[in-house]
Amino acid sequence: MQAHTKRVYAICYRFTNSDSEAQDLTQDVFLRIFRTLGSFRAGEGSFTVWLTRLTRNLLVDHYRRTKNERVTDAIEERLSVLEEKTAQHARTDGLLAGREASEQLQAALQKLSPELREAVILRDLQELEYREIARVLDVPEGTVKSRLNRGRAELARVLRRNKVMV
Amino acid sequence: MNCAEFESRLADYLDGTLEGSERAAIEVHAAGCPDCRQFMADVTGGLHFLSQADKVEPPAALITRIAYLAPLGRTRDPFERQGLAARLFSKWIQPVLQPRLAMGMAMTILSFAMLKRCTGVVEPQQIQSSDLNPVRILGSVEDKALRLKDQAVKYYDNLRIVYEIETHLKDLEEPSASTGTSIAPAGHVTRRASPDPKTNSETSRKGNQP
Fold first, then answer.
1. Cα of B80 to nearest chain A Cα, Å
2. Which of B:65-84 have CB within 8 Å of A?
3. Across the interface, which of B50, B51, B56 has its CB nearest the CB of A10?
4. Please, what is the end-to-end C-alpha distance for chain B in angstroms?
5. Domain residue spans in chain A?
6. For A14-43, how does the pLDDT look when each residue is reduced to its tens digit (9 = 90+)?
7. Confidence check on the interface: ipTM exceeds 0.95, yes or no
8. Which residues of B are less than 8 Å from A118 in CB distance?
9. Rg (chain B; Cα; Å)
10. Residue B205 has pLDDT above 70, yes or no
11. Average pLDDT of B183-188?
């Protein structure tokens, strides 16, 4: 239970970049799990895939619903602050570590399109297999790999623009 | 190998799952294609950065809340779509129905009612600072209480049944108390030959009854 909660929260937080939204969404996911647990068929895939797919679908719904309401200025403002901060403290090795890297990553992830973002989160942060991601996203494995490459490359470009990476 | 094949194999190449010949093909293509070389550098850089990210931990309270309440279906469902009436109710009506707010309103109304009664001020606009003086309020309360008591005593005395009972009691008491008393005709009770001068001036109470 705890491991699943951590997984769902991490996906939601990485996707939304908001603790409160991630908590609300995580609760919503588990409410739906307990309502629809009967629809889970062990033979159709692992519970993790089922759980992740449910989470992803909810995230997509949430993304669409809040698209108009979302205040993009806040993200822009945050990114500009980060840009100033990192410009002042840019390291010669070009990479930051630990928590700071995580914060930079969060800001940069928000710059990716939802398709690329979810692929990167599921593979590189949640460490799911390609076939599992394909089942979650309901796309072929080749599409997953393509999105993954484009997502990673776009992320690197955003980080470079923010002078986090050289 | 063309650029499309290069891109489709790149993820496996970075995972280290390609065979030797396929790895070599990727490297040869990257060496000869600047765009793909740059693309591979970007992808590798992004992947390296992602590998440094911390694990995200949810708040402990969230885990507890979900573990205990979600099976009961009692965690809130914040993204459930609400109708207009429900949204209006939750935004405007629900806060008014809070017990502490209702209690506060009741106490305010009670305070104004008591103030009005004690000071005699009818309209709130008529209240002046002198009306709120404790001495004046106390005096006003005392005056009201005395008036109320007088009104109650008068009302009680003027009740017909009280008067009739008192009259009959006096009729019963008078023969035993004094032998010089008699019952006057037509229901008039008078004291005669009483040694007490006070009683001589006493007239029939019934005659004064309105």
1. 9
2. 65-67, 70-71, 73, 75-79
3. B56
4. 125
5. 2-65, 72-161
6. 888 888 888 888 988 888 887 777 666 666
7. no
8. none
9. 50
10. no
11. 46
Closest Cα partner for B58 from A130, A58, A30? A30
| B41, B53, B78 member nearest A105 (Cβ) | B53
- Of the given ranges (A137-146, B125-134, B173-182), which has the lowest mean pLDDT? B173-182
Interface residue B157 vs chain A (CB under 8 A)? no
Output the pTM of the full model: 0.55
**Rg of chain A over CA atoms, in angstroms?**
17
For the segment B63-86, the average pLDDT, to the nearest whole number, is: 64
CATH 1.10.1740.10 holds for A2-65: yes
The string of pLDDT tens digits covering residues B165-175 is: 888 888 888 77
Rounded Cα–Cα distance for residues A49 and A138 (Å): 11
| Candidates B49, B56, B70; nearest CB to A101 | B49
CATH code of the region A72-161: 1.10.10.10
Q: How far is CA B9 from CA A36, A148, B122, B164, in A?
A: 38, 12, 89, 117
| Topology alike, domains A2-65 and A72-161 | no
